[in-house]
Amino acid sequence: MTVTTVRDDGVAAPWRTPEFTERLRAVAEERYHDRHPFNIRMHQGELTPAELRRWIANRFHYQRHIPVKDALIVAKLDQPALRRAWLRRIQDHDGTADGEGGIERWLRLGEAVGLDRPTLWDATRVLPGVRLAVEGYVNFCRLRPALDAVAASLTELSAPSLMRTRIAAFERHYPWIEAEGLAYFRARIGQGGRDSEEALALVHAWARTREQQERAVAALAFKCEVLWALLDAVDRGGGS
Ligand SMILES: O=C(O)c1cc(C(=O)O)c2c(n1)C(=O)C(=O)c1cc(C(=O)O)[nH]c1-2
After folding, report:
1. Which residues of the chain are modeled with pLDDT < 50?
2. So what's the pLDDT on residue 25?
3. Which residues of 207-235 are buried (b: 16+ CB within 10 A; e: fewer)?
4. Is 178 helix (H, G, I), strand (E, B) or coil?
5. What number is the ipTM of this complex?
6. Is the C-beta atom of 43 inside 6 A of ligand 1?
7. Can you give the pTM of this predicted structure?
8. Ligand 1 within 6 A of 162 CB?
9. Ligand 1 centre from 2 Cα, in Å?
């Protein structure tokens, strides 16, 4: 039970840092897509090759838009040090030259399951629900203040643990996928841990009032829904 302190002016006092952190972590854990039935089936080794290909082709649509939404966040930052830190995320995905970066690693994952690059880039396999979920996330970061957009990225608090589970599941249940194809997930363990700690520090610095703290928690809940809706669409399937 948490006690809500209301000040004399009737405005709820801000949560102290440990309670605020606890609330953010609770959302990132309890509503995270590692609990989605599709991910559970993936981890139990129950996905068919066609289902894995469907997930990889549709998740590419998310991956290719992450640097786009990060560029929208950079445009909201007015300090060189903040922009420098956030620009590194774009570099993680795009690399500094052709043949590098997270998008390249995801394309190689696609090739490891038999999806060629043009098929991933032309987006013909992208399901309507996935398109909407990704657009919802990009537009959220376009239209909301930096606090909300950065707080939404905090799903990454739970991502490193999911990456470890996923790598173990792929090695055990889907040996037909070459180990080299899993490089994307291996790289994300370190990147996700570092990104989420940096984002958490920014959210703590910027959310000074209870209203701002509640906005941050709501932004994170929204992002959990984006990831959940994306997997709902992939789970349901349809199309090729
Ligand atoms: O595979 C996943 O389950 C997963 C989840 C998330 C996430 O929690 O948002 C990201 C990623 N992967 C990812 O690869 C990634 O680059 C990434 C960036 C972000 C973000 O919101 O800025 N989330 C995620």
Report:
1. 1, 240
2. 97
3. beebebbbbbbebbbbbbbbbbbbbbbbb
4. coil
5. 0.90
6. no
7. 0.94
8. yes
9. 31
What is the token pair recorded at 208?
A: 């000074």
| Per-residue pLDDT, 46 | 98
Choosing from 66, 154, 189 the residue with most ligand 1 atoms within 8 A of its CB, the one to mutate for a pocket test is: 66
**DSSP class of residue 4?**
P
Q: What is the pLDDT of residues 96-138, one digit of tens each?
A: 999 999 999 999 999 999 999 999 999 999 999 999 999 999 9
The residue to which tokens 């620009």 are assigned: 87
Q: Which residues pair with 6 in a beta bridge?
A: 12
Supply the pLDDT for residue 3: 54
Domain ranges of the chain: 17-236
So what's the pLDDT on residue 8? 72
Give me the phi and psi of 116, to 5 degrees please. Answer: -85, 165
Residue to mutate (ligand 1; options 24, 56, 138, 155; most atoms within 8 A of CB): 155
Atom of ligand 1 nearest to the CA of 159: 8
**CATH among 2.60.120.380, 3.40.220.10, 3.40.190.10, 1.20.910.10 for 17-236:** 1.20.910.10
Give CA separation, 125 vs 36, 93, 108, in Å: 21, 21, 17
Q: Is 191 in the pocket of ligand 1 (CB under 6 A)?
A: no
Question: Angle formed by the axes of helices 183-206 and 17-30, to 10°?
Answer: 150
Query: Cα 142 from chain centroid?
Result: 16
